[in-house]
Amino acid sequence: MSENPLVSTLTLSIQASGFSEAIKHLWTCHNIINSTSDAHLLIDFKVATLLNRLFNKYSSQIYLPLSRFYLAISKFTGKSASAVVLKICNDILMLCEALKSADISQELELAVQDLLQILLTTELEEEQKSVVESLIVNKNYTDFDNKINEIIQLIQENNPTAMNDLFDIFSSFNNFTEQVHLFSTRLSKLISAIQDKDNIEFAKKLLLFLENFVFKFNYSIQIGEYTEIYSVCLINKLSSGILPTVISICNTVLAYDINITQSVLPILQRLWVLFPTETENFYDATRIVLSAIAAQGNSEFKVKASGFLYEILNTPGFSEKLKDSLENSDDLSSLINNDAFGPSSAVLESENICKLEELQPYAGLPLNANIEAGDEFYYCVEIVEANSILTWGFAMRYYDIDFELIRIDLPTPQIIIKQDHVECTQNAYANSKLINSPGLYKFVWSNKSSWFASKHLRFRVLVLTPYHKVNITEKDLHKVIEVLCDDGITYDSKNILEVGIYSKSKTVYMSALGIQEEIPDLDVNAILGFVKRVQGDKKYDSVKIGIVAKCPKKRNELKQLVSVAMCRDVDAVALLNESQMHCSTLICVMQDEGLRSCVVHRGHIMVDENGQPIADLARAGISDVYVGIATLLSLFGPATVVLSGNEIPSVQEVLEKSGNLVSESIMKQSLIRSTVYYPEATLTAASRLHFLNHKYKINS
């Protein structure tokens, strides 16, 4: 019987001379799992034991890559032997405890619950069944529901403390996801109770409460002499499930005077960005707010409402009947005739600039922790993208607290901030930091200096990632292809080795001469090793390396590779397709770790006066691929639309769902197709990047 390849590869990972080599073998295990039809047959006690040994050997340095592997095998583990499944569940839960509160920890906990439910359907020994049942989490919200009923009673009595209690009960949880779940599912009776009361103070507090769940998510942040727009990552945890509660609250507060009604406008603007396919659900509230502002709103809100109305009337896919109703409405004519009625290049709510040190965003209510005497509480956050902002704030009901922020995915954890006896009872402590390196960061609040007193902590931790770059002092011109370094050897030479590198958030793919390998990050030594293996004994005049990414980052150490060009992945794929098809207008839409796009017209990627791509769905804030494609075709069509990326829908799906949103004449003259070199288009474009740059400059 042949040896289990997972066992042999994990053994190599254990025996590796260093962490990088160990991770390389762990990534090989991913490939084994993904390429094996009966992967569950590979998952046995030996595999579980070796994974546990990796956990113990590298500790926090390996938490993230190990988590991703556990997440991968959890999809297959349910078919393995019961004892093996139980062992892996226990090991995953141990890792979750170490990763407390990190997003991937929550994903792993859900995976474990799924596996435990599968185990309950199998024949288990009594002891095993008892263990499984003890590990299954059954959320009980009886206490929460009882408290909500008490708040409803206070509302019926017009007691002003009612809304304070609502804020307080939502601040008793330790994760945002749970707050959103309860907001979405358990507030209908409370909202009805407020509707029955003509109490303007309740309405004001209810609107303030709503702002915590449909929150401002774009910020213009000044860091030194630069200003960049950042977005709060927690918007990714908002689903359309919140809409019934949101709309119910909006309808409740709209019954009051204009000061409250016009304050609903920012909520609706955010909803149109967050849920572009659900706009008809909040059309009525939008119409009421716009009409009220047109009639009685102040000048500032009239300007905002005029711009918003223009956006609605120019939203592809929105009901033409409803558009006509708005456009031909007499009570909205003052908004249409306002000077602000027109297109805006500004990102929603990014007009005001905030200094990094003054940044205090919020999303959800504060989270909660009780820290016993002699104990500590920690909260982990994974930073996925370089140059993200980590922002936090906390307060104590009584006493001070010791605080640390540590990066823990390093051979030796790095203390970033350490402060003892932080006084935060009168005013909350708040801070923000630009994080240059992706990794795993751990907040620690320690009560070890206390012998008797437990401490009650309320805190917020948020991650903001770059939206796009703006330079205060000069235009930041977009270079479609940027050559970091060049060996001077032109394509007149036939003896050139082209190497393509596709850098994604958690994996870097390398390709040359039909050989592909994966590495966890953009490591120069790993790239040089790959080039050496591909070359073998053959000598090349030039090794030209192309690197593409969603948001490519220049790094000086990459110049060690001698001849390197960089480009946005979607731009590279677009130019590759244009070089093959020679279209008059080509639209490239990529969906892979997010949605983005560009337009190539007569061989050039279209940019604005500042050199920024003007047809990028990511910059436009459009997250629905079908609406995005329809928008691009309406603006730039007829055109050839090229679909690329692991998450992109099929051509047929696009034709069915986007075709109805575009005029028939444009659709008839347009072509929608998959990218050339599918499914390796991105790596192929990367490998051809120097050639495409040569061609692009010739055509300029």
| Low-pLDDT ranges | 468-478
Spatial shape: globular
> Helix proportion of residues, in percent?
40-55%
CATH top-level class of the largest domain:
Mainly Alpha
The CATH topology of the largest domain comes to: Leucine-rich Repeat Variant
Average pLDDT value? 89
**Alpha-beta content class:** alpha+beta
> Kindly, what is the distance between the CA atoms of the first and last residues, rounded to a whole number of angstroms?
62 Å
How large, in whole angstroms, is the Cα Rg? 28 Å
CATH structural architecture of the largest domain: Alpha Horseshoe
Number of helices: 27
* Number of DSSP-assigned strands: 22
Largest sheet: 7 strands, mixed
How many independent structural domains?
5
Proportion of beta-strand residues: 15-25%
Q: Which key features would you list for this structure?
A:
700 residues, alpha+beta, Leucine-rich Repeat Variant, Jelly Rolls, 5 domains, 7-stranded mixed beta sheet, 6-stranded mixed beta sheet, 27 helices, 22 strands, 42% helix, GOLD_dom_sf
Characterize this entry briefly:
Residues 352-463 form the GOLD domain. This is GOLD domain-containing protein. Helix content is 42%, strand content 21%.
Please specify the SSE layout and strand pairing:
Blueprint: H1 5-15, H2 19-34, H3 45-58, H4 63-77, H5 82-98, H6 103-120, H7 126-135, H8 142-156, H9 161-170, H10 176-185, H11 188-195, H12 200-210, E1 218-223, E2 226-232, H13 243-253, H14 258-261, H15 265-274, H16 283-296, H17 299-313, H18 320-327, H19 333-336, E3 353-355, E4 367-371, E5 376-383, E6 388-396, E7 401-407, E8 414-422, E9 429-435, E10 439-446, E11 455-471, E12 481-485, E13 496-503, E14 508-512, E15 515-519, H20 524-535, E16 542-549, E17 564-568, H21 569-581, E18 585-591, E19 595-601, E20 604-605, H22 617-620, H23 625-636, E21 640-644, H24 651-658, H25 664-669, E22 671-674, H26 681-687, H27 689-699
